[in-house]
Design brief:
This protein is mostly helical and about 190 residues long. The chain has one domain. Helix content is about 55%, strand content about 5%. It has seven helices and four strands. Strand 2 and strand 3 form a beta hairpin. Helix 1 runs antiparallel to helix 4, helix 3 packs antiparallel against helix 6 and helix 4 runs antiparallel to helix 5. The structure holds zinc ion.
């Protein structure tokens, strides 16, 4: 009984981790983050940041492509290896694909969307224009909102999601937090990401 449970569980965990590979690893390479201040400091709203939001959106959806790996392995395992291990992989990978697709259809927002990038672009445009909040507008994305560094005015009420920077809470805690939040902003814990 316990052995069966363990087989199913390891298949499920394996599938879960594989589908999160793009989001957990790719953006965290050091050379990819040199233009950003270290986590969890506020990030200046510029074209680098907007580009990053779009990249995070890609990584989020890339999970569906990565789900093909556990779906394939799970299928092979169902026929030739441990059926429970395969079933565990199938359930998790299948669930991920289903939930992302249904969320997309029902219009539920991913942590990083094109709309979010456009809202940030808008903040940047206004700060560069004559309608800016103050003469030296410096929009910074803090934990819960975008705020001007010079005058302190809140420019956009938008909690900051995970931006793919290497995490200040270290690999293990950062990893756990990302696994739980799936990259969404976690404002309740009064800390970013
Ligand atoms: Zn200002």
């Amino acid at each position: 009984m316990w052995l069966e449970f363990f087989e199913f569980f390891s298949g499920a965990v394996m599938a879960y981790l594989i589908t999160r590979i793009p989001f957990l690893t790719f953006p965290r390479v050091k050379s990819w983050n040199e233009q950003f201040p270290p986590h969890p400091e506020p990030v200046y709203v510029d074209s680098h940041l907007i580009q990053r939001v779009l990249h995070m959106r890609t990584f989020y959806w890339l999970a569906i492509v990565f789900a093909l790996i556990p779906l394939t392995f799970g299928w092979v395992s169902l026929g030739h290896g441990s059926a429970l291990f395969g079933f565990g992989m199938w359930s998790v990978a299948g669930w991920l694909v289903l939930s992302r697709v249904t969320a997309f259809i029902s219009g539920e927002e991913a942590p990083a969307t094109k709309q979010l990038a456009m809202r940030l672009q808008n903040v940047k445009n206004i700060s560069d224009s004559e309608e800016s909040c103050c003469p030296f507008a410096q929009p910074m994305w803090e934990v819960t909102s975008v705020r001007c560094k010079s005058c302190g005015k809140i420019l956009l009420m938008e909690p900051r999601p995970d931006l793919g920077r290497p995490r200040s809470d270290g690999w293990i805690m950062g990893f756990v937090r990302l696994i739980i939040s799936d990259g969404r902003a976690m404002i309740s814990s009064d800390e970013e990401e």
